[in-house]
Amino acid sequence: MSTPLSGPGSPRRPESQASGKALRLGTRGSALALAQSQQTADALTAVTGRPVELVRIVTKGDRSSAPVAQLGVGVFVSALRDALLAGEIDFAVHSYKDLPTGAFPRLHIAAIPPREDPRDVLITKGDRALAELPPGAMIGTGAVRRIAQLHALGLELQVTPIRGNVDSRIARVHGPEADLDGVVLARAGVVRLGRAAEITETLDPMLMLPAPAQGALAVECRADDTDLVELLAALDHAPSRAAVTAERAMLATLEAGCSAPVAAHAELAEGEDGDEIYLRGAVISPDGVRAIRLSRTGTPADAAEIGKALAADLLDAGADTLIGSTE
């Protein structure tokens, strides 16, 4: 099901445009999906001059209130990909961490724009930082990865799984019917919605390692649409692609999905012989009692191999038993 979107903020099609009709960008209908899709559309128009219109696609994940861990990997993605393959849209923008790690030969990730800050954030009543929360404080979050790491901190917090968009999750802390002491969310989504001022604390990755590809967007089109592949490449950001490639290669080699208690964070830094990737990875049991945390370094050109090697290290250390414990 697709619906063209229009209104304030949508790029206007120039009266004279050599390229013809506007490109159709498929997006989910949530406020966050619309915001990040509009930002991508505006960026593409600014760089290439091509007009873009948003087309709303309703996904199975949008229709369900079940926890993401129960819905499965790719629940927010399949409807967008179906629309791409059916020719209903020209390209789509995904939150990269929602994409299954398996190859999809008929489609191509043409661009990974500059990545937003991948860290998680805490939003609490009274602006209390994580260390200031009393034992028994009720914290909500939607990811098994976050729940496991909160338990691992040993702060005696009551952690509960929650669903909903960014606005509805924050409303459970600051709204008129608030029932939680705090929520943990991805910083990228909060920032993209213009609500950064409500963040109490940005969590150090040493305490809360992000999900693989968190904060990154994937701009996807049909692989055989070579002109569009070339056009969208103007949005690609090489450092973000290298970091995400390393993190996703680790996840794929572990054969774990976005709902598994797997975390990864790759950073690019200047080394003695040029840029280096420093990749940290972790697998945590859902109760937080057991965790395996390791790291690898290498060059951006070897990003995928770094991720695969770190996954092998984690598996050698017994990570498969922790991933299996989520079932």
Short synopsis of the structure:
The protein has 327 residues and is of the alpha/beta class. Helices cover 31% and strands 24% of the residues.
Q: Could you walk me through the main structural features you see in this protein, from its secondary elements to its overall organization?
A:
β12 and β13 (274-284) form a beta hairpin. This protein has a six-stranded mixed beta sheet, sandwiched between helices. The longest helix is centred in the N-terminal third of the chain and has 18 residues, at 31-48. The protein has three domains: 2-116 and 216-236, D-Maltodextrin-Binding Protein, domain 2, CATH 3.40.190.10; 120-202, D-Maltodextrin-Binding Protein, domain 2; 241-324, Porphobilinogen deaminase, C-terminal domain (Double Stranded RNA Binding Domain, 2-Layer Sandwich), CATH 3.30.160. The two termini are 32 Å apart. The chain has helices at residues 31-48, 60-63, 68-71, 78-85, 144-152, 166-174, 187-192, 226-232, 238-254, 303-316, 319-324, and strands spanning 2-4, 23-27, 52-57, 91-95, 107-111, 120-124, 138-141, 158-161, 182-186, 201-202, 217-222, 262-271, 274-284, 291-298. 31% of the residues lie in helices and 24% in strands. By secondary structure, it is an alpha/beta fold. The protein is built from eleven helices and 14 strands.
